[in-house]
Amino acid sequence: MITFHFGKVRGANEAMVSAASLKKSVQWVILFTLVYAMIANWGLMREKTSSLVQGLSNLRQTGLGSPLGTVQGDAVLLMDEKTGKILYGKNPHTRMYPASTTKILTALIALEKGNPDKIVTVGDEAGLGNSDESTAGLYEGEQLTLRDLLSALLLPSGNDAARTIARHISSIELGREVSSEEANEYFSGLMNKRAKALGANESHFVNPHGLHDPGHYTTAYDMAVIAKEARKNKLFKQIVNESERTLVRDEQSQSFVNRNKLIQKQDENYYAGATGIKTGFTEKAGYCLVASASRQTTSLIAVVLHSTKTTVWLDARTLLDYGFTLNKTDPVPRPEKAM
């Protein structure tokens, strides 16, 4: 009997010890789990904090949360024209198609290598374009000054004027008359050489007008650099700031109207202080605009590439507004529309 009772007591004691050990083990497991959870949560909090800081940094860089966040162009850039300082950029070094903003460089080379008063005879290049191209209505045998050709190039964005200028300048440089095909190749070489000399190293041009070609590309930064140089020329600045220019051709008056709505005072997209420069469009390039504006002592250049038909103007105005805000320049009042 004693042995029997002793066995029961010992069994009970062992059960109590086992239960206590199990309880302690469970407590350790719970404690370990809590500690692990705290460490994991701390790491997650640090990760979230880091992500938040990075996110805020990205907001500052992209302009999101500010008016710049509404800019739709795939590649844009804002430059202080006087200093060359970049005030804002979105994908400024991304390869893009320039469309007719190409003609800024075409005009620059023409002004550097040609005489604006020189009479130029239009050749067969006037009829090389497609029916849906932008033209100035030039025809073979027509005679205009180089200055008039530049107006035909920069205001109505005539591809025919671009080809005629390329042939004229190439003939001068080579000392002989050249074909349209040879002129295109030679003049493109001049364009690339001049771009590289300016530091526009991420561009490559294969024609003087900007019609689409996979090998014809630029960046927002490069276009700003080219525009800055072109605006050093007084005649260039004068032409791109004209709302229109009337010529007498074949004893009849014809007006070249500037496609840049920022300088058209009666247009809803008019921008007070706008001084130029050039529009562009192809299906691949989208709507492009290189714009300039001056207020008091501040001059800006804004580049918008691959935007839409309506937002390209808003993009440019938003960039320019931002630039003038940085310089705390009072806006020039918008002129009243004529009744």
TrEMBL record:
- Which family, according to the similarity comment? Belongs to the peptidase S11 family.
> What does the entry give for GO biological process?
cell wall organization; peptidoglycan biosynthetic process; proteolysis; regulation of cell shape
Record-linked Pfam families: Peptidase_S11
Q: Which SUPFAM superfamilies match?
A: beta-lactamase/transpeptidase-like (SSF56601)
Q: Name one GO molecular function term.
A: serine-type D-Ala-D-Ala carboxypeptidase activity
The residue ranges crossing the membrane are 26-44
Q: Which ranges carry the Peptidase S11 D-alanyl-D-alanine carboxypeptidase A N-terminal domain?
A: 70-307
Where, in this chain's numbering, is substrate bound? K278
PANTHER family referenced in this protein's UniProt entry, alphabetically = D-ALANYL-D-ALANINE CARBOXYPEPTIDASE, D-ALANYL-D-ALANINE CARBOXYPEPTIDASE DACB
Is Transmembrane one of the keywords?
A: yes
Keywords on record: Cell shape, Cell wall biogenesis/degradation, Hydrolase, Membrane, Peptidoglycan synthesis, Signal, Transmembrane, Transmembrane helix
Report the active site residues. Answer: S100 (acyl-ester intermediate), K103 (proton acceptor), S157
Protein name as annotated: Peptidase S11 D-alanyl-D-alanine carboxypeptidase A N-terminal domain-containing protein
Signal sequence bounds: none
